[in-house]
Amino acid sequence: MRAHRFVGLGVALLAAGLAAGVPFIDAQGGYAGLSPRFLPTVAGLGLALCALLLVARPDALPAPAQAPKPAVRRLAWVAGGLVAHAALIGIVGFVIASALLMACAARGFGSRRPLRDILIGLAIALPLWFVFARVFQMGLKLLPAAGI
Q1: Strand, helix or coil at 140?
Q2: Given a cut of 90, is residue 116 above it in pLDDT?
Q3: CB under 8 Å to 56, separation ≥6 — which residues?
Q4: 31 bridge partner residues
Q5: pLDDT tens-digit map of 13-51
Q6: d(CA 2, CA 21)
Q7: Which of 12, 59, 102, 123 has the maximum number of C-beta atoms within 10 A of its C-beta?
Q8: What is the DSSP code string of 101-145?
Q9: DSSP state, 60?
Q10: Collapsing DSSP states into helix, strand and coil, what is residue 35?
Q11: d(CA 20, CA 35)
Q12: In sequence order, which ranges of 35-68 are alpha helices (DSSP H)?
């Protein structure tokens, strides 16, 4: 069995686990007419679709014998950015953590212009922060360490 099928089965198990937990989420509440079950349901369906594609058509995807080292470095930049975002969001806030995540992800995809990438990250994250913090009243702090 090809590796893509194993990955597809793993993704299918993840989708099944997510789907099994959805009924235990309280359906009351939410806002804008959406139940708290909506997003987990969409994520579960997306995972199920990915699993189906991986299991049904693994030969359509190339499977190199050994991943080249540059690919591992690119993955490390993106994964490191995600870990740093999770670790820093409570200290430096959503906007700065997201801008750093953008720079790390862009570096993982080959960018060599970190200042530009951080500025683009700020340009994306600041309006998102405004919408979630001010419009939806979600309580995201701009700079938690400073109490802002």
Answers
A1: coil
A2: yes
A3: 8
A4: 34
A5: 988 988 898 888 887 776 666 778 888 888 889 889 988
A6: 30
A7: 102
A8: HHHHHHHHTT---HHHHHHHHHHHHHHHHHIIIIIS-----S-GG
A9: G
A10: coil
A11: 17
A12: 38-56
